[in-house]
Amino acid sequence: MSEVVIIEEIPCESGDGLIAKVTINRPDKLNSLNQEVISALKEMCSWAESNDSVRCVVICGASPNPAPEGKRSKPHAFVAGADITEFVGKGSQEIFEMFSDNAIEAIWNLNKPTIAMVDGFALGGGCEVACSCDIRIVSTRAIFGTPEIKLGLIPGYGGTQRLVHLVGYGRAMEMMMTGNNVSAEEAYRIGIANHLCEPELLEEKTMDIAQTIASKSMHTLGVAKQTIRAALDNGISKGVAIEAKAFANLFDTEDKEIGVQAFLNRSNPEWKHK
Ligand code: COA
């Protein structure tokens, strides 16, 4: 795996398995997404999906390197967008290929829980990476935004679609039409962020939630994720029908029996589908 994406394997506290902490590591370029990062993230997704020990994926950006003598340090960034230098001289066909079947779709399509841990700038493609995760935990230093309009562009990694579901039509329109930044507090208020905390508590809070999720049945988590997703892709009647089927099917799983019995016996469930 390339060094632009670093994976740390954090043991699960509840038993076997691990939480994959994935760091996008181009701090000198504010972790912007060049094609090397995109390829490495896609590779990470294939690895995470096929590795049974991975129970949750946490994505973050590398912290800034110490500033060279006499220079100001770079700001904190989750991801400051697509690497704009790669836009130069590209035509529509090339860009269409670069932005189709991309890493952000791969993250979105992971059938495992995903959390974005956001400290600093999450702009453009960075906002889109965060929105492609299931949950966003952000520090008070986080800044979200979709500034593409200032480049004569619109979001190209699914932001026009996914952001609408998080913040609603009017706010998504305002963000994408003004290109204005959204502070961490505002991001929390409008539903981009699930939790807001001081930078020094961000990792602890994120891992706490990741550990809680990772302690659940992987099979049931996958069903939950797919079923909740049905709410985005279908009208309410069709979504409720999909839920009814998924819910009923869980009654044929051992994990449902294990979970119910553990509750009745006041013990901790030992999931079959770890
Ligand atoms: N693509 C390529 N390089 C980027 C980048 C991006 N999206 N965002 C930041 N960088 C690079 C800068 O060019 C700079 O490189 P250098 O030190 O070699 O000159 C470095 O990262 C640090 O960024 P800098 O602009 O100097 O930091 P700042 O604190 O002055 O400003 C931002 C921070 C986030 C406001 C500013 O970098 C920015 O606006 N970035 C682009 C955001 C954007 O439009 N994203 C959407 C792209 S579609």
Describe the 3D structure.
Helix 1 (35-50) links the parallel strand 2 (18-24) and strand 3. The longest helix is centred in the N-terminal third of the chain and has 16 residues, at 35-50. Helix content is 45%, strand content 17%. It has 11 helices and 10 strands. The mean pLDDT is 95. Strands 1-2-3-5-7-10 form a 6-stranded mixed beta sheet, with helices on both faces. The chain has a 4-stranded mixed beta sheet with strand order 4-6-8-9. It has helices at residues 35-50, 92-99, 103-109, 125-132, 159-167, 169-178, 184-190, 199-214, 218-233, 236-250, 254-264, and strands at residues 5-11, 18-24, 54-61, 77-79, 114-118, 121-123, 135-139, 143-145, 182-183, 195-197. The radius of gyration is 19 Å and the shape is globular. The chain is α/β, with parallel strands linked by helices. Helix 1 (35-50) runs parallel beside helix 3 and helix 4 (125-132) crosses helix 5 (159-167). The protein has a single domain (5-65, 72-199, 218-265), classed as 2-enoyl-CoA Hydratase, Chain A, domain 1, CATH 3.90.226.10. The two termini are 26 Å apart. The protein binds coenzyme A (COA). Coenzyme A (COA) binds next to strand 6. The site of coenzyme A (COA) has 17 residues, from strand 6.
